[in-house]
Amino acid sequence: MNEAPPSVQPLTAADVDAVSALARSVWQATYPALIPQAQIDAMLADRYAPQRIREQLDDPRQAWWVAKQDHALAGFAHAILDESDCKLDKLYVHPDRQRRGIGAALEKTVEDWARRQQVRRLWLQVNRGNTRAIAAYEKYGFRIVESRVFELGGGFVMDDHVMERML
């Protein structure tokens, strides 16, 4: 069966609950080997609560997109503008749909948006143990510029690489 290419469009309020659910699926497939379950639960509750996402939709310095393939939600991305840069804050693809160009389509959408905002650098944080994501970001032209531990509170930390790509 030939799959349709992914279509990427801005996230609407109608898709927020589905994005929140997809985040949980992706995180449960990816992070249990890398961080404690309690941290997964806390980060999902903090970053992917539907109300929090809805609030971010009204912030002009933030943007969300969804990727659909064959009429199904396949992935999503979120970016935040700061002083003169753009942080690719979230980019996730359903585990069953990875390695099909969905992540690349989302990354390109974020890059295009960042260029329209006239920023010169796109950057992200990725867990040091998430080798598949690191390889994907390197394929998209990102490079590791720093590795550090970020305190989250509650005894949790993120042990991440900071990656960047100049635009």
* Sheet of most strands: 7 strands, mixed
Structural category: alpha+beta
- Work out the radius of gyration: 15 Å
What spatial form do the alpha-carbon principal axes imply?
Answer: globular
Give the second-level CATH assignment, the architecture of the domain at 7-119. 3-Layer(aba) Sandwich
Strand percent estimate: 35-45%
Mean pLDDT over all positions: 93
Please list the strands of the largest sheet in the order they lie side by side: 1-2-3-4-5-7-6
The secondary-structure element order is EHHHEEEHEHEE
Low-confidence segments, ≥5 residues, pLDDT <50? Answer: none
N-C termini distance: 36 Å
What's the CATH topology label of the domain at 7-119?
Aminopeptidase
What percent of residues adopt helix (DSSP H or I)?
A: 25-40%
Multimeric status of the protein = single chain
Let me know the number of strands: 7
The CATH H-level homologous superfamily of the domain at 7-119: Gcn5-related N-acetyltransferase (GNAT)
